[in-house]
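[Meeting: bench + compute handoff]

Bench side (C.D.) handed over the final construct sequence. Compute side (W.E.) agreed to return the predicted structure before the next meeting so the bench team could plan truncations. Sequence as handed over:
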Amino acid sequence: MLFRIGAVGILVSVLTQVLKHSGRDEQAFLASLAGLVLVLMWIIPCIADLFGSIEALFSYP
């Protein structure tokens, strides 16, 4: 999971730099926003599972 997030971060940063140098700042912003949304969609289920595990751990039998 960490390597996938790192790979997306590297790709988005390279794409953003290329778009900014070509004068397309709006597309660069949208590319970074899309990368953020993609990573959040990967992380949110993991966080939900973590909270579910913690809730199950501290629940009364």
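W.E. noted at the follow-up: The chain has one domain: 2-58. C.D. will use this when planning the next construct.
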